[in-house]
RNA sequence: CGGGGUGUGGUGUAAUGGCUAACAUACACGAUUCGGGUUCGUGCGACUCCCGGUUCGAGUCCGGGCACCCCGACCA
C-alpha cells in the first residue's frame, strides 16, 4: 500500500505540502521562508512558463529585465505603494564584508554603508516605470507592453511552501497606454488570459472578478483577480491584474505628447502570476497517493515501465520501450532503472502525478499490446500498439477534462448563497467554500466580517445579475454580490 | 511582536531520574526476490539544541539562552 499521509483535522494545506515534499518537488531551504524548488517541481514551473510566455508574446508583449535592487527613493515615490510594501521589504544597507578581528569569521564592514539603501524588489513597478518615463516621449511610443520573468522578495511574517515564500518566482507584465479605455482593456484581457490558462492548462476553475478597495494592490486604481478553490474549500488568489490608472505615471512622470501636442500621463497596468500556481495545482488535484498533474502541464505525460525477468531480456525490453515511446508522440519518460522493483516505480510515478503509465513486459510484447493506467481514476486498460499514437493523446485529453470537471463540480458544490449574517457565521463553521452574499460596498461592513470571521471578500465576480438585495451585515440596499471565503 | 507547544542518528519516533540511549525508515554492502513498496543478514550513523544548576546519577527535574512549529497581527 502507498504510504499515504491522511489529512488530519482542518489543515489540508500542510498535508498537501507534506505530499509535495514526499514527491520531491520542493523543500524549505536553510534561509528562513525561502524554498528550494527541486528539479521535478521546477520542470512543472517550466511548463507553465512556456505556455504563459507564448501567450504573453502573442498578445504583443516583449520580455525585458530590470534590476533586483530598487533605490529606496524610487520605492517611496508612490504613496500608497510604499505603504503597502514597506512592512515586508528586505533592505540592503552595506556592500562589503571584512574579516573579524580574530580572523575566524566575517562581519559587515561599517565603512561600506550605502548612502542610499537598496530595497530588494517586492514587485517592480517603481523601477520599471522610472525606465518607462525615459522610454516614453510621444504617443508613438505607446502602447508599451513589457513582461519580466523574475524573482521577488517579500518578507512575510509567516510562510508556507509554494503558497507564500519569502522569495518566489513570477512573471510580471507592465504596460503603458494612451487612454484609460485601452489600459482597462489590457488589464481585463490579461486577466482573461490567466483565467484561460488556469482552466485549460491547470484544470483549475477560477472565478474572475474585482477586488474591493481594501484588498486591491497598493497603488492601483482597480485590481482584478482570478480566485480558485482548494480541496479544503479555502480560496487561493491564482492571478491578479491591476489597472493602475495614472497613479504611477504621475509619480514617475510617465508622460507623452499626444497628437495635439499636449502633455498627457500614461494609463498603466501590471499583472502577474507566481510559483504559487504550483501550490494551487497540488492543492486542487492531489489525492492520498500524491500529486495528480493535468496532462497539459505535466513535465512527463507518459511514463513507460519496462518489465523484464532477467538481464538477458532487459535490453530487449528497453529497446521495445523506446519503440513504444516513439509511438506516443508526447512527453515520455522510460524508467529503466534496474535497482528498483516494478512496484516501487509505480508508487514513485504515482506520487509524482504522471497522468499515464504504460507497462510493457513479455506479456504485452508478445501480443503487441500495452497496459495503460490512468493516474486520475486508477483505471487500467489494454491497448494495441498500433492504436497508441491515436489513443494516448485521447486519454491525456480525457484526464485533462476529468480533472477540470471534477474541480468544477467541487467548486459548485462548495459555493453557497447566504443572506443572513448569523447564518453566514454558522455556515462558515460548519462547511467550507465560497459564500455569495449581498454587500453594500462599505469598508466598515467588510472589515467587520473579516475581523469576526477571518473570511475576506475574495472578489466581486464579473458574472452576476444586477439583482436587488440587502447587505448581509448592515441590511442596507445592495445590488452587488461578493464572494466571502477563507483564504490562504 | 503577543499566546501556546516542541527540541533525541539524515527522517519519523521511543526511553518511572538508573545498565552500552531503543525502534522504524533511509543509506552502504551481500544474498534472495522481481507483473503493486520482496525477504533476510551485515554495516554506517546521536557529545539527546546550547550554557549553567539540583543529584551518587539528568535525554528526563530547575533556571537562562537559542531554534523551530502552531495560533493571532501582515500578505501573491
Topology overview:
Blueprint (H helix, E strand, L loop, with lengths): L11 H11 L3 E3 L6 E3 L1 H20 L3 E2 L5 E3 H4 L3 H7 L5 E4 L2 E3 L6 E3 L4 E8 L4 H11 L8 E10 L13 E11 L2 H21 L5 E5 L11 E8 L5 E11 L1 H6 L2 E3 L5 E3 L1 E8 L1 H10 L16 E5 L4 H18 L3 E3 L7 H10 L4 E5 L1 H6 L1 E6 L5 E5 L3 H26 L1 E3 L3 H10 L3 E5 L4 H11 L2 E6 L7 E2 L6 E2 L2 E5 L3
Parallel strand pairs: 3-9, 17-18, 17-19, 22-23
Antiparallel strand pairs: 1-2, 4-8, 5-8, 6-7, 9-10, 10-16, 11-12, 11-24, 12-13, 13-16, 14-15, 19-20, 20-21, 23-27, 24-27, 25-26
The structure holds one RNA strand of 76 nucleotides.
Please, could you describe this protein's structure?
This protein is 35% helix and 28% strand. The protein is globular and about 80 Å long. Helix 9 links the parallel strand 17 and strand 18 (332-334). The chain has an 11-stranded mixed β-sheet, with helices on both faces. It has a 5-stranded mixed β-sheet with strand order 18-17-19-20-21, with helices on both faces. 42% of the residues are buried. Helix 2 (39-58) crosses helix 6. It has 3 domains: 12-285, BirA Bifunctional Protein, domain 2 (2-Layer Sandwich); 302-401, Rossmann fold (3-Layer(aba) Sandwich), CATH 3.40.50.800; 415-485, C-terminal domain of ProRS (Translation Initiation Factor IF3, 2-Layer Sandwich). It has 488 residues and is of the alpha+beta class. It contains 14 helices and 27 strands. It binds one RNA strand of 76 nucleotides through strand 13, strand 16 and helix 10.
Amino acid at each position: 500500500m502507498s504510504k499515504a499521509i491522511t489529512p488530519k483535522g482542518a489543515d489540508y494545506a500542510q498535508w498537501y505540502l507534506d505530499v509535495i515534499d514526499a514527491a520531491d518537488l520542493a523543500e524549505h531551504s536553510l534561509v528562513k521562508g525561502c524554498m528550494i524548488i527541486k528539479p521535478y517541481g521546477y520542470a512543472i514551473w517550466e511548463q507553465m512558463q512556456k505556455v504563459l510566455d507564448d501567450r504573453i508574446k502573442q498578445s504583443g508583449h516583449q520580455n525585458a529585465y530590470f534590476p533586483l535592487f530598487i533605490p529606496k527613493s524610487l520605492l517611496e515615490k508612490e504613496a500608497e505603494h510604499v505603504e503597502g510594501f514597506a512592512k515586508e521589504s528586505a533592505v540592503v544597507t552595506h556592500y562589503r564584508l571584512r574579516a573579524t578581528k580574530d580572523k575566524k569569521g566575517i562581519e559587515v564592514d561599517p565603512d561600506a554603508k550605502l548612502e542610499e539603501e537598496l530595497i530588494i524588489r517586492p514587485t517592480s513597478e517603481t523601477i520599471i516605470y522610472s525606465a518607462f518615463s525615459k522610454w516614453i516621449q510621444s504617443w508613438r511610443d505607446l502602447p508599451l507592453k513589457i513582461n519580466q520573468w523574475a524573482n521577488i522578495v517579500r518578507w512575510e511574517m509567516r510562510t508556507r511552501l509554494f503558497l507564500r515564500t519569502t522569495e518566489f518566482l513570477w512573471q510580471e507584465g507592465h504596460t503603458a497606454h494612451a487612454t484609460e479605455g485601452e489600459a482597462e482593456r489590457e488589464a481585463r484581457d490579461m486577466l482573461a488570459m490567466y483565467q484561460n490558462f488556469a482552466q485549460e492548462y491547470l484544470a483549475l476553475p477560477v472565478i474572475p472578478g474585482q477586488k474591493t478597495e481594501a484588498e486591491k494592490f497598493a497603488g492601483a486604481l482597480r485590481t482584478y483577480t482570478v480566485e480558485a478553490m482548494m480541496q479544503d474549500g479555502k480560496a487561493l488568489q491564482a492571478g491578479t491584474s491591476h489597472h493602475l490608472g495614472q497613479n504611477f505615471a504621475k509619480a514617475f512622470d510617465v508622460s507623452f505628447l499626444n497628437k495635439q501636442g499636449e502633455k498627457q500621463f500614461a494609463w498603466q497596468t501590471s499583472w502577474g502570476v507566481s510559483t504559487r500556481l504550483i501550490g494551487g495545482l497540488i492543492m486542487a488535484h492531489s489525492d492520498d497517493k500524491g500529486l495528480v498533474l493535468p496532462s497539459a502541464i505535466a513535465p512527463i505525460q507518459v511514463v513507460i515501465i519496462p518489465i523484464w525477468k532477467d538481464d538477458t531480456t532487459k535490453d530487449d525490453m528497453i529497446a521495445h520501450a523506446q519503440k513504444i515511446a516513439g509511438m506516443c508522440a508526447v512527453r515520455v519518460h522510460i524508467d529503466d532503472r534496474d535497482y528498483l522493483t516494478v512496484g516501487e516505480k509505480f508508487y514513485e510515478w504515482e506520487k509524482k502525478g504522471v497522468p499515464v503509465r504504460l507497462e510493457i513486459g513479455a506479456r504485452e510484447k508478445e501480443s503487441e499490446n500495452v497496459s495503460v493506467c490512468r493516474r486520475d481514476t486508477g483505471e487500467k486498460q489494454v491497448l494495441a500498439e498500433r492504436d497508441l499514437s491515436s489513443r494516448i493523446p485521447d486519454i491525456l485529453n480525457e484526464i485533462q477534462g476529468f480533472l477540470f470537471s471534477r474541480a468544477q463540480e467541487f467548486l459548485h458544490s462548495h459555493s453557497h448563497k447566504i443572506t443572513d449574517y448569523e447564518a453566514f457565521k454558522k455556515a462558515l463553521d460548519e462547511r467550507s467554500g465560497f459564500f455569495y452574499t449581498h454587500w453594500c460596498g462599505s469598508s466598515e461592513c467588510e472589515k467587520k466580517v473579516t475581523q469576526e470571521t477571518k473570511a475576506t471578500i475574495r472578489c466581486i465576480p464579473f458574472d452576476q445579475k444586477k439583482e436587488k438585495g440587502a447587505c448581509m451585515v448592515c441590511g442596507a440596499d445592495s445590488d452587488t454580490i461578493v464572494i466571502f471565503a477563507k483564504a490562504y
